[in-house]
């Protein structure tokens, strides 16, 4: 994710927005005409291929459930399906972010993928949220670059 890695202010032509500005400036969020900074520091109008899209996932989960590939329930003939993945804090192991799936059978037949406290019942709405999270994490990276550069400059 090459955009949002600049640490110096970037002056943009009128009508264009940086990817970071899209979150705080509604006009930028609507325009979707962003300037991007490539890994070698060049400015481009071409968004990185992975800017707001889901990555290709070729790995297959190791579950044995014949109904949902991501189900981690191992009891033969089970009706309720689930799994959970987390990103954990390195210091104490508590989850920073969690996601998972729940698939119910019977009268409550449904499938849900959750991301923290939000439930999604279709891939498109979940992918919209994960794209937003990618942009958010890019902003966190950019903030860290600025904060730690500023801190080092303080001596």
Overview of the structural elements:
This protein is α+β, with helices and mostly antiparallel strands and 155 residues long. 26% of the residues lie in helices and 23% in strands. The protein has helices at residues 21-24, 26-31, 123-153, and strands at 17-18, 34-37, 43-44, 81-88, 95-104, 110-115, 118-120. It has a 4-stranded antiparallel β-sheet. A 3-stranded mixed β-sheet has the order 1-2-3, with no helix packed on it. A hairpin with a 2-residue loop joins strand 6 (110-115) and strand 7 (118-120).
> Level of helix content?
25-40%
As a percent range, the share of strand residues is 15-25%
Structural class per helix/strand content? alpha+beta
- Our measurement of the CA-to-CA distance between the termini, rounded to an integer number of angstroms, reads 30 Å
Envelope shape: elongated
Number of DSSP E strands:
7
Largest sheet: 4 strands, antiparallel
Low-confidence stretches: 1-16, 19-35
Radius of gyration: 20 Å
Order of helices and strands: EHHEEEEEEH
Number of helices: 3
Overall pLDDT level? 75
Largest sheet, spatial ordering of strands: 4-5-6-7
